[in-house]
Amino acid sequence: MKLEIANISKSFPGIKALNKVNLNLKQNSVHGLIGENGAGKSTLVKILCGVYQPEEGKIKINQKEVNLYNPKESLRFGISAIHQESVMFDELTVMENIFIGNHIIKKNNFIDWNQMAQKSDEVLAALETNIKSSDIVKNLSVAQRHIVQISRSLVQDADIVIMDEPTAALSQTEIKELYKIITNLQKQNKSIIFISHKLDEILEICDEFTVLRDGEVVSTDLISKTSKSELISNMVGRQINQIFPKKKVEIGNEIFVAENLFKKTQFKDISFNLKHKEILGFYGLIGSGRTEIMKTIFGINKFDSGKLFFNDQHIHIKKPLDAINKGIVYLSEERQNLGLTGTMSVKDNLNLAMLEKNSNYMIVDELKNLTTAQKYKDKLNIKVSYWNQLAQNLSGGNQQKTVIGKWLATEPKIIILDEPTKGIDVGSKSAVHEFMGELVNEGMSIIMISAELPEIMGMCDRVVVVYKGLIKKILDVSETSSEEILSYASGE
Question: What is the C-alpha to C-alpha distance for residues 327 and 105, in angstroms, rounded to an integer?
Fold first, then answer.
């Protein structure tokens, strides 16, 4: 199916989100759509999905002009989207999530549960995953949830599939399997818009590309006629400083120790230390337990046995507030579910962790709130149109900066970053890396979970390699290699 977007424009209060955007998606091709956070990619996707209506311009499918006035109409014209932030129903089964709002109905008007289960299993089998249609979604990992959402799009049999950061939470093996699925979709004459901040993926899987910057198309061509450096230059319109490796700082003495942490079915014998001004990496494949360990240290979950020490003192963390009071904070990889309150303003989000300190007898001191928000808006260069702008309307990069600012306001000693650059553009990623260097230079210690080996190798002093809930090895980054880390992470 062929898609033509001609002179599409869209504005919001104070923002020109899209300005006369043109894009041509050919039949059975993969078209890469790239740009920094805030460039207009998400707005364009929402127009194609019928969520937003353009102020001007035309959309044609197979040379016929269409009006995508709501999501159902968009789906009727064969457009389906896999979004960056999954919308899932935790208490329902995988099958129910796959077919939510799209049930197969028998002639007697009853839901055909058997056929839905069969189709779900077929799609999941094609993805070569061990997920079952009867599994409850709340028991799935982030990566597995993403696979369910991919399955949801595939069962809709769409002719145009929009994949918005589809690999953000997937392992390398799962990414390769997704590539196979994309190739199969092309053979079935499906057309795909592929959105990713991972430019290597764009170069590998796409046939053509379009670069958006500040709501306008700055470049579009065959993928064979461009390069990674040219894409970056077109995306940001400026030179991105190379932050790897991080700036040298003098690492101090041990400040935090985890000793023999154990949680049934998740991890055991977890022992490591963290030093003053150190960036300690945690690396492991999907399902290794790295995130579960950090959630337990922060008090979101409870461990069955083990001890924690901070500045040589045995500490007890039973809930997140205990950790915060000790100077330990945690930035979740699920920023929209656990880090950000999207329906609150940016100002209020920046003050969420400071409500008690900025209040007097249950009355919030608005001047203190504004001062705190202004400080971290400036420090992190958060782009916001006005203070009451809802956090959910920020770009992914600015959402991440808002979550970081919220926790920095508590003046922590240790900050745990779980996939801090997942799903954000190269400019924002560079800014986060640079800021991490500034934090350790100011005396903070950082634990960083990342699935990206270049990020681990470039930013960390040591790396803890986790495999199936066990620490396989703790390595000095200056004395190891990506190959060695990956070998331990694979259980070798």
Answer: 55
Which residues touch 231 (CB under 8 Å, ≥6 apart)? 34, 199, 202, 203, 209, 211
Number of DSSP helices (H) and strands (E) in the chain, helices first: 16, 22
| DSSP H/E element including 99 | none
Tell me if 333 sits within 8 A of 142, measured CB to CB.
Answer: yes
Full-prediction pTM beyond 0.85? no
Tell me how far the alpha carbon of residue 416 is from its chain's centroid: 16
- The single residue listed with the structure tokens 């795909």 is 192
In sequence order, the 6+-apart residues with CB closer than 8 A to the CB of 268 are: 261, 262, 469, 470
- Tokens standing for residue 113: 């549960």
Tokens read off for 64: 């016929």
CA angle in degrees (0–180, nearest 5) for 137-30-180 = 55
How do residues 31-67 score in pLDDT, each as one tens digit?
999 987 678 898 999 999 999 999 999 999 999 999 9
Residues ≥6 apart with Cβ < 8 Å to 342:
336, 390, 391, 392
Alpha-carbon distance values, 308 to 81, 241, 257 (Å): 44, 38, 6
Contact of 1 with 7, CB cutoff 8 Å = no
Count of CB atoms situated within 10 Å of the CB of 108: 6
| Distance (Å, whole) CA 75 – CA 169 | 25
Contacts of 452 (CB under 8 A, 6+ apart): 421
Assess contact for 462 and 475: CB atoms under 8 A. yes
Q: Which of 2, 153, 21 is nearest to 66 (CA)?
A: 2
Q: Label residue 14 left, alpha or beta by phi (over 0 means left) and psi (-120 to 50 means alpha).
A: left
The residue type of 397 is G
What CA–CA distance (Å, rounded) separates 434 from 419?
15
Query: Over the stretch 129-176, which tens digit does the pLDDT of each residue have?
Result: 789 999 999 998 766 887 888 788 788 878 899 998 888 767 777 788
Measuring CA to CA, which residue among 228, 225, 208 is closest to residue 217? 208
Complete domains list, the chain, with CATH: 3-234 (3.40.50.300), 254-489 (3.40.50.300)
Identify residue 221 by its one-letter amino acid code: D
Residue that is written with structure tokens 């890396």 in the block: 433
**CA–CA separation, 453 and 339 (whole Å):** 24
φ, ψ of residue 478 in degrees (nearest 5): -70, -10
CA-to-CA dists, residue 128 to 122, 296, 374, angstroms: 10, 31, 48
State how far the Cα of 132 lies from the Cα of 389, in Å rounded to an integer. 41
Radius of gyration of the chain (CA): 23
DSSP label at residue 353 = G
